[in-house]
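User: Show me a protein chain along with its predicted structure.
Assistant: Here is one chain, sequence first, then structure tokens.
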Amino acid sequence: MDTNLKLWSEQDFPAFSENRDMKTSDFLNIPPIPVNRHVEERAIKKTIELLKPMAKHREVDLLRYTGPTVTKPALFRQGQTYVLDGNTRSYIWNTYKKGGVVNTKVDHTESPLPIPRQVNVRIYDIDNAEDAIELYYIIDSKDAVEEPAHKITGVYRANNLSNFKNRKIRRGQIATALNVACPINSKKTFSIYVNGVSDVWDQIPHLSDVLQKMDKLDAPGRGHFHVQPATGVAMLAGLACQCDNDWTRAVEKLAKAKTKLRETWQDEPDSNIHALIRGNVDNVVGEHNAMPYDIGFHQAPTIVLNYLSYCWINIIEGGTVESDITLQTIEGMYKNLVELAYEDLAKS
């Protein structure tokens, strides 16, 4: 390396536009940034931290959006001010001021929640929605990057998908399922991808309808769907058949399956459902460590995805899973299902 080469340069960085005190009552009327993560679960723990008043608790960051009103990547309205950092505190303080309780384990007769009369706000003027989101991810996370689950819940909010009931979906604990149901271009994790999809911002719009159907059936995390690859392939199958009645019946039955009991699949009369549940508890194809799914997906992900896809294609097309399944039987089935679901968008 050239020792005379200068590897850094001192320069002026962007700064906030305004710094001032604001009445807390005014702060609590400011909406969260449109991609704000799900705060309810985090607020339970945060309430305990707020019981002792500290200077940092009254410091918040706001975004004053000066660009044109846009709907992508989320709805940003020109001239609107949003909370960048302080959304969880805003939720907690608002809840208590309205007579509610966030953490029921805290005895507030002994420790009433303190709420500051004023907060100190740093206001950032930004005219580009993408830059606003990037700033949010930097400011709102201690590690400068949100955990995948938190990012997913922020994308839900941006796509008006914030009323999920299923615990796994609501908390955004479905990153692997999303990658299976809508494989990403940049990683090409499974040797096939959906054209134009590079991250969760692209995945959620493709999967919003099937996500809502899976949520309505309360499937993820239950029965056969206790592992994410099974959830992801089922979502993919839902896209391929537009969540028809056969798909819905299969998801309902699979969600109720007691995967730890071998009798569940041994007594199942439908050969396709039988095969899917059996994969939860047995190494169906005989390949070492290929299944059950919760073991096999880390050891042999292609085999797991091909097997799941083979079963779901039979459900979609009215076929029957063969009694003696080999690696040759299921070869290329995941790719086939992706192509069925995305037609011209699927690329190898």
